[in-house]
Write a structure and sequence with these properties.
Elements lengths: L26 E4 L4 E4 L5 E5 L7 E3 L9 E6 L7 E4 L6 E6 L3 E13 L16 E25 L2 H4 L1 E2 L1 E5 L5 E6 L2 E7 L4 E3 L2 E9 L3 E7 L10 H20 L9 H13 L1 E2 L4 E2 L22 E2 L2 H11 L3 H12 L12 E2 L10 E2 L13 E2 L11 H16 L7 H14 L18 H21 L2 H21 L22 H4 L8 H13 L1 E2 L2 E2 L17 E2 H13 L3 H13 L10 E3 L4 E3 L5 H23 L1
Antiparallel strand pairs: 1-2, 2-3, 3-4, 5-9, 6-7, 7-8, 8-9, 9-15, 9-16, 11-12, 12-13, 13-16, 14-15, 17-18, 19-20, 21-22, 23-24, 25-26, 26-27
Helix pairs in contact: 3-14, 4-5, 4-6, 4-14, 5-6, 6-7, 6-8, 7-8, 8-9, 12-13, 12-14, 13-14
Length: about 625
Amino acid sequence: MSTHSTSHSPNEDVSMPSPFPPIEDFAFLSDCHTGALVAPDGGVGWLCVPRFDAPTVFGTLLDRGAGYFRLGPFGVNVPTARAYEPCTNILATTWNTSEGWVVVRDALTLGPRRGEDVVTPHTRPPADDDADHTLVRIAECIDGQVEVELVCEPAFDYGRTTASWTLEGSDRHVADATGAGQTIRLRTDMALGIEGGRVRARHVLQKGERVYCALSWDEDLAAPADADEAQARFEATTRFWRDWLGRARTIDHPYRQAIERSALVIKGLTYMPTGATVAALTTSLPETPGGERNWDYRYTWIRDSTFTLQALHYLRLDWEAHEFMQFIAELEPVDDGGLQIMYGIDGRRDLTESTRDDLSGYAGARPVRVGNGAWNQRQNDVYGAVLDSILVHTRRSQRLPRALWPLVESQAACATAVWHEPDQGIWEARGKPRHYVSSKLMCWIALDRATKLAGILGDPDLRAAWRATAEEIKADILAHGVDDRGVLRQHYDTDALDASTLLAAIFGFLPGDDDRLRKSVLAVADELTHEGFVLRYRTDETDDGLSGEEGTFLICSFWLVSALTIIGEEPRARDLMERLLRIASPLGLYAEEFDTRSARHLGNFPQAFSHLALIEAAGRIILLELLEELT
């Protein structure tokens, strides 16, 4: 995915006070059509409706005036506790005021499918449960008395259009907000008042009492009519998440909670109508404080596909794996028959990038980008990701669907045609195209996996031809991609290190006892880390078209855990895994990067790739422990 270097602004320090909460302090909600981020003060700081890549309705994450929605105790902004209800994406926030205690629960609700979804139509077979297209919030006083306040101030189209409110009916319980061609409805059992571009309500709760509010963008703007119906929506949503997770592999291990939370994040980032998975919920959260390298991650990267399939199959979530594989199979190829590096969640190819210069950006990090300009870059690693995905899926399902074979042939042909050419590499560098070792490696993976798939299909001629090309690529990498120390290079014209060469271990390019692989993994561990966490590369040694430093990359650190287990360095792998688990957000979430200087998360959030790599790393350690028990 698009991940670029950037330097710390000389005037920015993420440890300094800021009106923007730390990225890692947000809670993630999802209904598998869209997602929301809830700040510690109870304000919804991010929500796009009706789907992940739509414009925001609430966007204070990127500009403090870009839309806000809060239900919580009046005059109190710091909660006592926040936690997910076990095995769900439902948030519970507990508040203590001078007079009492209140718990606020938030969910993007799901329930039994009621008919055809015309808001976000399905191309995959609909499941029994689907999104209600509603954000539901319930506040309950559990002791004493608490005055609660509701404030809803949407700003449509990334904050560009102020809402126009109208009260519906005569009881002040329903209000519609309209702007930028959209209408959303707020329904509550509190008495609403319109104040310009927002509505507000206040009510004193006694012990045992509760109030609710629900924001709907459903076709008919349907929402719970009372608190009991709102509670029923919560119960249905709880059943959905727990039933879904209950189908996954049960892992009785200290890593279980981290694995299950990662699975819930990945499911929550999956767009149910097509089976696509977004790389992250957000756009333009900066990779370094105050920086300008801010990217839109609300799309599907083909590179993620193999890690997604591996994680889903490891967890025995085969239905989601099948849906994602079908999404990949139906994507429109480019002119040479290959797939581009990323697509929209509806399969669209054109992701033209623009900037929203009217927004301040998170803590002043500008510009805010919509779309991603890397969509039409040449990256030769895409073919290996596709074919490894197909092999993983074929082995798990024990069948190679006829519809996938043309994709196998086209991707193998593309890898054969381009493997000897330079490209922009896995990190989408803006510098001169290079012969990146990781790109050559992924082309080898493409032909190696195509060889295995031809064997499954029973085509000896293709199998022999693809095997010969795979061997040619491997020989080229070992001749030109290894330095005098026996360590894999970043590209053929440098001795610089790159964390992407860890994929040589993960994808089986060399066996775990090969001296070159061992030296390469240990070189990354010893020379390409900062306070134990892995950098993508040294920016002063890499022509990526940008200047400055960057933080450590969480996916690369999890890759190192996996690679260390493969070369037999289990104690170091476990130690790094424990350190990575300790830096998770308070709710168990990960962004893209970790700033060791401030101990803050950086980049878009939550990040699917980080959670996918966590599952793989944890799985490898658990497998080692099981094997140790048997020997």
